[in-house]
Amino acid sequence: MPSLKDLRNRIKSVKNTQQITKTMKMVAAAKVRRARMKCEAARPYAEKLNDVLVGLAKGTGKVGGPLLLSGYADVKTVRLVVISADRGLCGGFNANLGKEVIAKVKELQSQGKTVEIMTVGKKVKDILKRDYQELLIDNVEDSGKNISYELATEIGNKVMAAFEAGECHEVILFYNKFVNMMVQQPTVQYLAPFKVEESGESVEMTASVEYEPEEEVILKDLLPRNVSVQILNAMLESSAAEQAARMTAMDSATTNAGQMISRLSLEYNRTRQAAITTELTEIVAGAEAL
């Protein structure tokens, strides 16, 4: 049985931990509001640009079109771009995304394809390097502190340069989508080539539209920009989802710490009462002996 001193020290330690988790919850709550506003502001733009590209792509054939639309006939190398957090203490946020990536890696390797992984964020790199160190080709850290279109364009240019040079034949984006404060959904999105059938189920051309210049010229300019926009949107979604996950995790940790303090306090009182009872019994026994 632990001594009174041990119990006091443990109660003090848990209280200190509870104070830390409570503070982290408050910080995450302040950050998630700003991140959510940015995420919800960018989401319609990314979706509408996607819809416009679907309409343009449906008006032109893949044959003879831009490489980002037509793609490669034989897909041998697939590059995965994985966006995660740079910090932990956010529940299963990074682990769940890592599971999705690992499942996809195994699926692609079973098909005989070569897999390359580019990570944006430190935590998913730490998860993947245990078993897939040889697949990691690039990493961008501290991206959560500097989410901008410039950074997204830099990442997009790297990916598109490899795609156009034939170093990879397909590019897939992984990130956590912000659904609500309690739900963060691991999401898979194809960046290259542009998947019309997976991007525009709800898009209907209700009128005949004439484009100037031609659809092929517009697509050649907009498709690379769309890659950067989708990466930026994924980074904003991931940032909002991360703060929401951290706030939820720290709230649960604070509650659990409170319950532990209650149990330890009860144990401390019982141990103290037992010690007092033992001392009284010894005093009474000694008095009777006299």
What does this protein structure show overall?
- The chain has 7 helices and 5 strands, in the order ααβαβαβαββαα.
- It is α/β, with parallel strands linked by helices and 290 residues long.
- The chain has 2 domains: 4-21 and 250-289, Helix Hairpins (Orthogonal Bundle), CATH 1.10.287.80; 25-245, ATP synthase, F1 complex, gamma subunit (Pyruvate Kinase, Chain: A, domain 1, 3-Layer(aba) Sandwich).
- The protein has a 5-stranded mixed sheet with strand order 3-2-1-4-5, with helices on both faces.
Write the layout of secondary structure elements.
Layout (H helix, E strand, L loop, with lengths): L3 H55 L8 H4 L6 E7 L9 H18 L3 E7 L1 H11 L3 E5 L8 H16 L5 E9 L5 E9 L3 H4 L15 H75 L1
Parallel strand pairs: 1-2, 1-4, 2-3
Antiparallel strand pairs: 4-5
Helix pairs in contact: 1-7, 3-4, 5-7
Give a brief outline of the structure.
The chain is of the alpha/beta class and 290 residues long. The chain has helices at residues 4-58, 67-70, 93-110, 122-132, 149-164, 196-199, 215-289; strands spanning 77-83, 114-120, 136-140, 170-178, 184-192.
Q: Quick one: overall form?
A: elongated
The percentage of residues in β strands lies in 5-15%
Q: Please work out how many helical segments DSSP would assign.
A: 7
Strand order, sheet with most strands: 3-2-1-4-5
Structural class call reads alpha/beta
| Total beta strands | 5
In this structure, how is the largest beta sheet organized?
A: 5 strands, mixed
Helix content: 55-70%
Q: Sketch the topology as an H/E string, one letter per element.
A: HHEHEHEHEEHH
List unreliable stretches of 5+ residues. none
Distance between the termini: 32 Å
Tell me the name of the CATH class of the largest domain. Answer: Alpha Beta
- Whole-number total of structural domains: 2
Residue-averaged pLDDT? 87
Just name the CATH architecture of the largest domain.
3-Layer(aba) Sandwich
Over all CA atoms, what is the radius of gyration? 28 Å
**CATH topology title of the largest domain:** Pyruvate Kinase, Chain: A, domain 1
State the CATH superfamily name of the largest domain: ATP synthase, F1 complex, gamma subunit
